[in-house]
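Note to self: user wants both folds in one dump. Writing first protein now.
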Amino acid sequence: MDLDGVLPTSHYVTRQARWIDAPPEVVWDALHDVKLTGLPVTMALGAVRFLPVVLSGKGLGQLHDRPFLEALPIPTLSSSPPESVVFGGVLQAWRLRGGEESPELDADELHAWIQPGWVKAAMDFRLTPSRGGTELSSETRVLATDPATRRRFGFYWLFVQPGSTAIRWEVLTAVQLRAEGGHPPVVLRVGR
């Protein structure tokens, strides 16, 4: 499965890629081993974004030392080791407290979803053998289900897109350091 099979069109897209001097199997393991607390930019931006949710009493469990891929706001739709992992779901991310609870959807249900007031989001991490190493890429696509939601999300996207891109670069860097045997990123310890 790839993003075209889940969300072939989109209103908003970000793409990042990095070449890593390691085979796909090593990069795959490193991608799955990267923890939230090893991603200081991600932790800081996540804390700012989700402060209203945390203050409302929801989401306190999100700060544990979990793998980054397990903490994404959209579920895994497909995993093909060591080639790709695809995530997707519907969100109301622009709402201060996160909006309504998202329904669990498989790839076909997400593709067919048309209920107004939501954005469909899909993201992947793809590993491609390249020049004796691996190109690790990530793409995020977002499609609003109606014009009013597109306007609301568009305003929100102006503010979060730079942070979203920074998070992806930080993840790619952390994976590269881990896969190439470099020193792991600084780890933030979050008290309970």
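First done. Writing the second protein, which came from a different request thread.
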Amino acid sequence: MNKPLILVVEDDKPIRKLITTTLETQGYKYHTAETGEASILEAVSNQPDLMILDLGLPDMDGVDIIRKVRSWSNLPIIVVSARSEDRDKIDALDAGADDYLTKPFSVEELLARLRVSLRRIRYDSEKLQKDASVFTNGSLKIDYAAGCVWMGQEEIHLTPIEYKLLCLLAKNAGKVLTHNYILREIWGSLTYDVPALRVFMATLRKKIEKPQSAQSKIIQTHIGVGYRMLQSGEDIKSG
């Protein structure tokens, strides 16, 4: 199988070299861009499978690049940025980024995030080729047609809101969803606030995750940002 093509958008030469060397040692193909304009040209002309994007480029803010790409493509975008404030992360994720890593970062975590995004690409592709009425992720199974949820052999009884939350996370497995995104998708507005969302999420997790068992963790909390459904076998430390 051909390795995916990764577009690395980074104007800092040492960091760009670190990322590309890491990709090269793992056998990934890559192209690079040092400006926002060049990144959009690369994305259009070479159609990479994934973009690793720095937000602080000399000619364009990275959030604007995300919005431009999202206007015509679902290309997975992993942000790697020195901006560490929750507001920056939320802006990037709300604009359409799939993930956010703060500099300095470990190459092991970058590769882990990369694998998660690429698995989601494969899952989305396979989903188009087969009946998507049943979602499975490890021991979790959601039968959308029947409206039933199973953990292994045990059927889990969820409230309507808990079920909607679980389905939203499942349909975006591996992707960070911000609090505001979830509130809009579930309730259609921001009528409910983040503390209320945390309560619903806590009751959901209590039903589908075994207490004090890291292996049973399904939902990852990104403090101050939102939530992500972990994919089976994912090796990112969970919150």
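Dump finished. Worth passing along: The chain has eight helices and twelve strands.
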